[in-house]
Amino acid sequence: MDSIYFTAYNTCDMKTQADIFHEDIEFFHDKGGLTTSKKELLESLEKNICGKVTRTLIKGSIEVYPIKNYGAVEIGYHKFYNNREPEAKSTPSKFIAIWKQENNQWKMTKVISLH
């Protein structure tokens, strides 16, 4: 699911991103604060990320732990490259995603993005 989501993120596939975010998403960003509106989160991603930022997973960094009767927690490291700042150094940052399995679909319910 990480690969599916971030392929959509990197290619500005807003429909797939919308399908993956749970209606009750909680997105915690250490610099930007908390977003609890799926609509606002998607609008922000489209405005600030699409065509500007690419995410790369740090190979071997993903840890996934099942959560009984709920889904799973994913922990890992990734880098972001901003094509508007080609000289900026990209350093690995940690993320945590809580995934819920509903009706045979995986949805992100919580994301913690640490830079």
UniProtKB/TrEMBL annotation:
A UniProt-annotated Pfam family: DUF4440
Source organism superkingdom: Bacteria
UniProt protein name: Nuclear transport factor 2 family protein
Domain DUF4440, first and last residues per copy: 3-108
UniProt source species: Tenacibaculum pelagium
InterPro entries: DUF4440, NTF2-like_dom_sf
